[in-house]
Amino acid sequence: MRLMKEFSKAVNLITAYCLAKVGLQISCYRFDAKGEKVLVVSNSTARSTAENFAAVYGQTQLKALIEIPSDFEVTPEVREEYNVKLSAEELDAIRVAGFISAPPSSSGTTGRSSADRQFVCVNGRPCEFPQVTRLATDLWRRCCRESLAASLLPSRSATSNFPVLLLLLDLPPAKVDVNLSPDKRQLLLQWERPLVMKVKAAILATLLRALGNYVNVDPNCQRNITSLMPSPTVKCTPKTDGKEPCISSPVADTFLSPAVVPTQLSQQPLISTHLTQIPTSPSTPLRKRARSPSDPLSSDIPTKSSLSPDILKSLPTVNTSAYDRHL
């Protein structure tokens, strides 16, 4: 069990290098029980990161991703949130690139049930950066809820899935210290807050561009979803002073046809007019049931003496000897 866990970690590290290194072919093989060589993961001598992604995970996975643009801007709200005091030249030295899963649409969600395809590379070195991966996952889930709400679709598993993520971060080497662990996967960054700020701005710009103009998302990707979704109930006020009732829901004209608006519902005939009337004779009034504690319905049951002889002949003969034996 431990051997498989360590093998999975090794494959994950090699996969990160296969995605990040452009123009360098990397292949990983293993030997099965029969001694045959089996390919585990490999990239190609690609000229871009997108081609590496297609070589490792296939074209289907690549089509479900959106590229993080390089022409994003850090909004004043994000800058104020992190309170970064670096100059414009120093911020330009921090570069963010990569890919992230597109928000889900009506065809289905594009996330995964685990974070097995989330990679972060700093200056070309795969590393562990949980603060950035948690930030990217949280922003992606929020924008997923925005996309599903705008399409009037249920949220489904938008709050539990993980996006496919590849972040390629570059900053001056003097600001990075890699000598923290033997595997060099834990880094000490002097510009950690500015780096996280630019990552958030880049992911927000990417997701907002993917969502389109029909959704208005603020810098925290939080929005009052009820402003886009129709109200499930329509409240009507009764008639007062001979005036027509008003509808308090702004979507009443969209979801109520003219035949069922409240002003005409009051003019519809009663349901009792459509029921078949049972004719009754005024000479034979209905007899009320007389109930008593001992036999509440005794007066409604006809006795044998009140029946006509023809009806008595048609009645079957019942043998009550077996019944009387148990009394």
UniProtKB/TrEMBL annotation:
GO terms for cellular component: MutLalpha complex. Residues 271-284, 295-308 have a biased composition (Polar residues). Residues 53-208 form the DNA mismatch repair protein S5 domain. One of its GO terms (molecular function) is ATP hydrolysis activity. One of its GO terms (biological process) is mismatch repair. Residues 271-312 are annotated as: Disordered. This is DNA mismatch repair protein S5 domain-containing protein. The lineage of its organism: Eukaryota, Metazoa, Spiralia, Lophotrochozoa, Platyhelminthes.
